[in-house]
Amino acid sequence: MSPNESLGDAYHRATKYARPGGSAVQPVAIARPGRHIDLPPPVTENGAGLWQAIRTRRSLRDFDPSRPMTPAELSQLFWATQGLTFHPSDDRFRASPSAGALHPLDTYLVINRVSGIPSGIAQYDVRAAGLNLLAEGDFSQEVAAAALEQEMAADCGVVFIWVAVPARCKPKYRDRGHRYIYLDAGYLGAQLHLAAVALGLGCCAIGAFLDDEVNALVGVDGETETAVYLSVVGHVR
Ligand SMILES: Cc1cc2nc3c(=O)[nH]c(=O)nc-3n(C[C@H](O)[C@H](O)[C@H](O)COP(=O)(O)O)c2cc1C
User: Is residue 57 situated within a structural domain?
Assistant: First the structure.
């Protein structure tokens, strides 16, 4: 642990996975804020039964690359995880809870197959409930390689990548904030998974990934912003 590093930052760094020969990801030309893409409004009433979604939820990994997702499905998944559910101009209160309502996690996506939306790297814009496309291109093989060669990351419709911004919660919680980051991420993963089931989509969490290869893909430095959790979603065979 270096003298200037906090305990929480040192813990996160020390538990990263890394490729023995060094990173295989070429730097991605990320353009911020990126090109905004509107999404259809989510459905916020009624819908599929929660008990059935809980009962039938399974981690599914066999995606059908010939069946793209739709922008409406994507919009619904964003809403179920980080949608603003109290007031459209108040980003403290969202579909998922967060310690101190500080929301230290941002949602990035590797878009493999969504009809009408270019493949690439994107970030969810919480306030606009839309997407910012940061880089266009096919990153399916890169993200699968960064996920320790888990092919489901290449075959799925989208890969959700939750990136922590510790500075949002550390002024209040100091190093304990790291615990809350991981707990918050669990909520996002759980709500995404149940929403995917409700939409008839497959979903699987990914905790096994090469941290700094995923960070390089979405254009974050791995320290002030760092990927903590991934999930794949798409139509299964
Ligand atoms: C934090 C976390 C990380 C996980 N990481 C992976 C992973 O990297 N690859 C994978 O195939 N499954 C992963 N899973 C899925 C588990 O393997 C799965 O939940 C478990 O086998 C139970 O199956 P079920 O989800 O169908 O109930 C992860 C699940 C969690 C909660």
Answer: yes
CATH number at residue 191: 3.40.109.10
Mutate to test the pocket of ligand 1, among 59, 62, 151, 160 (most ligand atoms within 8 A of CB): 59
Reading the block at residue 76, the tokens are 């619904």
Residue ranges around ligand 1 (CB below 6 Å): 58-59, 61, 150, 204-208
Residue 179 forms part of a structural domain: yes
List per-residue pLDDT tens for the chain, 237 residues long: 778 899 999 999 999 999 999 999 888 999 999 999 999 999 999 888 999 999 999 999 999 999 999 999 999 999 999 999 999 999 999 999 999 999 999 999 999 999 999 999 999 999 999 999 999 999 999 999 999 999 999 999 999 999 999 999 999 999 999 999 999 999 999 999 999 999 999 999 999 999 999 999 999 999 999 999 999 999 999
Tell me how many degrees the CA angle 137-143-148 measures, rounded to the nearest 5: 160
Number of structural domains (the chain) is 1
Are 211 and 161 spatial neighbours (Cβ–Cβ below 8 Å)? no
Q: Is residue 23 part of a domain?
A: no
Sign of CA dihedral 29, 31, 35, 36: positive
Any domain includes 119:
yes
Of how many residues is the chain composed?
237
